[in-house]
Amino acid sequence: ERANSDAPVASTAQKIQYILAINLKEGRNLVIRDRSGTSDPYVKFRIDEKTMYKSKVVHKNLNPTWNESFSFPVRDLEHIVFVKVYDKDHRSNDFMGSSAIFLSKLELDKTTEMVLRLEDPNSLELDMGVIIIDACLSARDGPTKRNKWMLKRRGSFGKVKPLSRFLYIKRSQVWGGVYTVILVEGQDMADVGQGDVYVRFRLGEQKFRSKNLCIKANPQWREAFDFNQFEGTEAMQVEVWSKRGRKCEECWGMMDVDLSRLPVNQQQLYTQALDPGKGRLVFLVTLSPCTGVSVSDLSSPSSEEHGKWKRMLEQYSLKNSLKNFKDIGLVQIKVIKATDIASADLNGKSDPFCVLELGNSRLQTHAIHKTLNPEWNKVFTFPVKDVHDALELTVYSDAGDKPPEFLGKVAIPLLRIQNGQPVTRFLMKENLGGLSKGTISLDMVLLYNPVRAGIRSFGPKETKFTEEMPKFSKKVLAQNIYRVRKISSAILYTLQYIKSCFQWESTQRSIIAFLIFVLTVWQLELFMLPLFLLVLIIWNYFQVTPGSASYSADLENMSVAEEEDEEEKESEKRGLMEKIHMVQEIVLTVQNILDEVASVAERIKNTFNWSVPFLSYLACLVLFVATTALYWIPLRYIILIWGVNKFTKKLLRPYAIDNNEILDFLKRAPSDIQKVRGQFSIQREQINKKKKKN
């Protein structure tokens, strides 16, 4: 009878997802590990060398009572859950025995009390006590690929394995719509002390992880992101996880959201219940049609294509600026060929193909076998969500069932595209910090509506799903310290100059400064502040050529490439890595803070020195409007309008996403590091052209 009940479960093991719910109740007659004759036991539950749950420590007790409930997903019934008990100590944790839970022996949807006898092959103790738990294994229908995603640990989420990523692209390249998801909040969630809670979303191979929020009853995320609608991807998986410490994570609930019946252009509100006692999750989903994506062969344009292009020009003209604010524009890329690329095979050849990425949108060419000079002759069209994005083209060599090998990469800001002019770019290394081998020939056209693009510049910048977690690097840390020191030196020099005026070190200079100060204070009006910034931008317009970059020689000489990841040492060095891991996290946080501070200051500077003419023109327009408004409208009315908007924003738009328009605008401006990376290949091209002429 037992064998018959197991048969259908085993036959569907690859089609069903499982959740193991455990109630850790108590321990009895545990072994002594402290000199005081007691122990401080805690329990770890592990699968595949990964800790799925860690209990609290019960001090000075050989018969501890935990009464802790948790759950986590498992791949299939072949897995074994190892239960290990340790004695908490300041220096080291002493082992107190272990046992195992065989999932294949559990009955589905039935709670079973288990008395797990602890054992240790290296111990002479015959009786090490028992751990008593309640276990319940339940099945959930869903795609089999979801299992891998659910068990990913900290640091791996958001990284897409190259092989699975490209297989997905080959199956379906063109998407027909876009799902806009707004993660709003959690309601009545378990307030269980310290820790973080976050949410994972997945649609096919597209993934998104929310920011971490402190565990509380009603966490507010207010995050928005987009998923492309591919054929055959109708179920969106949503998971809520809590995290305590670096290794302990607990799943609070999983759900599948059917998007097949979602109405077009209508916002749908979802309030999904989590596991018992864990609360609810609130999010919104909107399906918008997308018709600007295409892949075609390079050929002479037909009359039909000419007519389509004229309609596109009309669609993005200024007179149609107020029709569809989300439709910013489109970019067409003709990937013609690559020349003299690196070889990936032992025979000195490669099987190259090119992947094009714009934000979270991704298309690719076909692979051409056994060549170092591939000619693809493909035309790709992307819808533009933000004109400040950069188009990334990466050349790989196809390796069959193995992950493709990287050959070179090019990043081109959309606003630097010169319509209809063929360009040849040097391939760069993966971090864009130096030259790789070979070149790629392109022909690009960008169409966009400047009014819609300007409005979009003040909205939240789209987060890229496939960005890797930042790693600690001594070079990056030293570089960020140098950037902050450079900015702070300029500020200190200005303060010293002002102090010298107060100290009358130069009589002429102090008299002039005193007269300027008196006249300014006497005549100052609030509208003069944006007017002064407007004059400063216009002054820089005549001082430098719009779009040209004034680069620091120190930044050019400093390598912007991150250190390549060194291979991990053998097990004898892992203990040392564990000891310094906490220190590395602190240093990594400092490194990222320094980068943020330096980037904000550099972006402000680059907005005023016309590094990106579109942003500078936009800043001029905004400052002119601000100047006019402050000149004609009394300040008290402006403050009143601002206050009323702040107080009524929550009432009128309960699901609105909070953002700072000024910071969102500044994020579009490049930092000095981004400017150096963007101009490195262009400067090398100019140098090579000069050498050829000479």
Automatic annotation (TrEMBL):
Gene3D superfamilies reported in the protein's UniProt record: C2 domain
Cofactor: Ca(2+)
Taxonomic superkingdom: Eukaryota
A GO MF term: calcium ion binding
Key words of the record: Calcium, Membrane, Metal-binding, Repeat, Transmembrane, Transmembrane helix
GO biological process terms held by the UniProt record: regulation of neurotransmitter secretion
GO cellular component, one term: synaptic vesicle membrane
Transmembrane segments: 512-542, 614-633
Localization terms from the record: Membrane
SMART domains per record: C2
Pfam families found in the cross-reference section: C2, PRT_C
C2 domain mapped to chain residues: 1-116, 159-274, 310-427
InterPro entries linked: C2_dom, C2_domain_sf, MCTP_C
Principal subcellular localisation of the protein: membrane
Topology of the protein relative to the lipid bilayer: Multi-pass membrane protein
Family: Belongs to the MCTP family.
Protein name: C2 domain-containing protein
Organism: Denticeps clupeoides (denticle herring)
Lineage: Eukaryota, Metazoa, Chordata, Craniata, Vertebrata
